[in-house]
Amino acid sequence: MKLAVVGSRLKFWRPELSNNRAKAQEFVSNKLDKLDKKHKFTEFVSGGEPTGADTLGENWARSRGFKEKNPGRNLIIYKPQERLIQKGGFGYAAFDRNKEIAARADKVVGFWGTENLKPTRGTGHTLQHAKSLGKDVTYVAVNKGNFPKGWRD
Hints:
Elements: E1 2-7, H1 15-18, H2 21-39, E2 43-46, H3 53-63, E3 74-77, H4 82-88, H5 90-104, E4 107-112, E5 114-115, E6 118-119, H6 121-132, E7 136-141
Parallel strand pairs: 1-2, 1-4, 2-3, 4-7
Antiparallel strand pairs: 5-6
Helix pairs in contact: 2-3, 4-5, 5-6
């Protein structure tokens, strides 16, 4: 099963996690270990955002033996493409990358934060797109907010 991990930057997480990267890493790793035990992931896909859930997920994957071009424990990191940044800006390119991540995965897990109780848009976009593709989608609320009902961890 192919796992995608997406999520908000740490600044949108609750303070005890956003102010303590080691604690945030432990939180993400514990969640992913439980899921990996259940699903036996063969591929890890993410977007490589350096200040949030993407990187915490990538750290988890690398520490569990995922590597680039490694059948059985393959690692794929999608970065927004420069040509798309030139065409429509970083946000445009990131939303395109989010669609690629959702399409590649079987299961998409979002570590979803909030700003002023509103869920962050990029994570929401990825999760909604994955749902529209019929993917197994769940999210972990990492801050207080008004999240959609019915598909939470």
